């Protein structure tokens, strides 16, 4: 990289204040690196480059759109900046949601390369180019990139943008093409890991040493998502195999699955440490992300080691008619419960606020999507069996099996949440009675500084609000319970001294029981929501859920021996599970993309195909069983969800690179 002079000298050169002409280094179209920034002109210092890299990563996380920034000295053909930038895009295999901001620093030209089918309109791109020109003119190259990202963010609205998603018909066609290709491939041979694959490592000369920290973090997040999907799918398949062949036959795989879970949980703990509010050094960040990659690799390797025996155990090709009949019966049972789930949700809606039911509000509709997909797969399986194609039948049966299981999970989640809300009501009512007693006890205490009176008044306000909330037809029991618990903690500090030890211990256990119940409800709701929509959910939500589950287990284990510590762990589990739900709902909202007409929002969408994509079924189920997925779900391939990590350029010729590049734009600065 050529070293550039200071900004003052550069400015002087720009206005012609120096007599000697400077050389202009024309640059051929370049190959992009692993990150979002390629600074061959040397205009960014390391801090600026890291900031731009992070901003582009954030842009991808919130919109699903990649914006790469390239700084060179001059384009090889200054008269055609468009051709230069578009050639970079095409030679790097960029897709329709991937853009390049190309800047020729000495040539003083710039251009944003785009695909005509992408989410940004020509006018929106022209607006972005107009917005960044002042920064380029003043030599603020990092600021220009930041302004461009802000312009994309504003135009796309943080959710992929209006019209940014694929039209439903296109998505269905793509999904069908992908499935057809996978089925043909599976008939030829079962998937196995490629020999000689590069393994993760942190020793000298490791490929990971060549990655910048941001790229390393993105890879770790992607590995968490893929491995979590692999473990979840493997767990479901183990259940199916145990039911069909017996626990003894599946014992080896059960052990491998347990080991994989342990590795994955450790990886999620490291991810939570990276995400918390405590600053981490560069060395810690790199070391923990490398360790996450190694743990994920270890988890997948354990599953793959048992893959051959497990695949032989399944042998759906050999007993496809019996397996088909079994799934058909499961489908009948689950389908028969759909009306009951509808009725239960409608009944709950008459008593509870919409936000209290947000994790199950569309569950019956999503269950019908899974049933529709299962029906299509079962029909394909029957056709394949008739034709004597056991391999194709096995693929369809496996997809139907998982889809039916998800439909059942979605139905059961409605009842589970209803029971949790009702229990929350009972706990809140009991806590109100306790608080009334505490306020009476506090009123009899000396109050020289007015602190007791203030605490009583605050508690009274919370109790009155809780009573009103519980009397409403739009109750939020778990939120009410949280507010009452906060009020209880406050007044406990006042009346604790007048309770005897036995009464205090009883009260602590009561509060602990209520908090654990609440945490269990939150963790269960988060688990059900994410499992049935995992095709869209990224690493953040999964990490929070894994940590919430670990804290809940600790709370339960410490309940008898250390109630105080157990209460803290239960509160942490409750908080983390709530965050997991929020992250997951944001991811699903981005994946569904209202700008594309609510592509996954129920109704007819190609035989339940898009619902299956949201459930992470289509690709994960079709690539050879065991959940040993290297590429994630079709949802990830289409750019949906809010996964951590940008990049992800498709290779030239891949289906993601459709559309045509070329637009009038850019200019001189």
TrEMBL record:
Gly residues compositional bias: what residue ranges? 634-660
Q: Can you tell me where the transmembrane regions are?
A: 166-188
Cite the InterPro entries for this sequence.
Answer: TPM_dom (IPR007621)
Domain TPM, residue spans: 37-153
Keywords assigned by UniProt, alphabetized: Membrane, Signal, Transmembrane, Transmembrane helix
Q: Where is the signal peptide?
A: 1-26
Keyword Transmembrane set for record: yes
Record region (Disordered): 634-669
Tell me what this protein is called: TPM domain-containing protein
What species was this sequence derived from? Microbacterium rhizomatis
